[in-house]
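Extended Data, panel c. Modelled sequence:
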Amino acid sequence: MSETVTGTLRGRDVLSIADLEPGELRALLRLALRLKAEGHGQPLQGRTLALLFEKPSLRTRLSFEVAMRSLGGHCLYFSPQEVGLGVREPVRDVARVLERHVDCVAVRTFQQEKVEEMARYASVPVINALSDHEHPTQAMADLLTVLEAKGKLEEVVLAFVGDGNNVARSLCLGAAMCGVHFRIASPEGYRLPADLVERARALAAQSGGSVALLDSPREAVAGADVVYTDVWTSMGQEGEAEARRRAFAGYTVNEGLLSLARPDAIFMHDLPAHRGEEVTDAVIEGPQSVVWQQAENKTHAVKALLLALLAGEGG
């Protein structure tokens, strides 16, 4: 974790975890650790963050609101019914209204194109708070949790078991940037996109990490330092639930699968969890689970990001 930020993140958009340079990501994680350990003042007094959420949320909304308010700023939340991006009015119109009232916009949407259009037209920083393509602030929280638990990211073996969804995509890219050996086990038809894997492997080649796509959960988990899973059916995919349950049969993280990892391995899940599907109660409630710490760390990761974008903090 010796890299430093070359330049500032102030005023930038973060639509993908890979919008950050590897050194910037590492510096943000160090900043988040420091904020969590030492506390902070209220450097964002007088600043306002708008949350435009087309999808419901517990942890993401909680982390953004708590982070912004604890740093001295204000938060304005717009619910799915109020937002209507591209329905009630064009995204570009919403962007140009918001930029005259707030200092930053976080967008949680079903379509990556909407957060990208918001960033094109808004002169203030725009953060992807989840889209169908990525979930960058979740990846920051995940990497922060691994760093906190293992004391490093370089050479850590992280096994993701399940769908190559938005969470897995951001985590794959972020892990590759930080020297992590990232393994993902997914069934045919649910794997990470080839272009993202190519990009992640190029990043891993520079950091000393690696990216492996596997079919077998047992092969992915064997000797891993971190075992991570997520729901098989994400929001908006409810009509595919039964087909997905069939496709992911054998991908449940249970005590037997977790036992193949290192004895000191940690278990992670970004929540909400469908207990009995992708993970058993025994694992998520077990001694190796750090899911509640992981959920808390999202707030600290968001604090670091907001400070960097709005106050020029970065290391």
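The domain at 137-294 is CATH 3.40.50.1370 (Rossmann fold). This feature is highlighted in the accompanying rendering.
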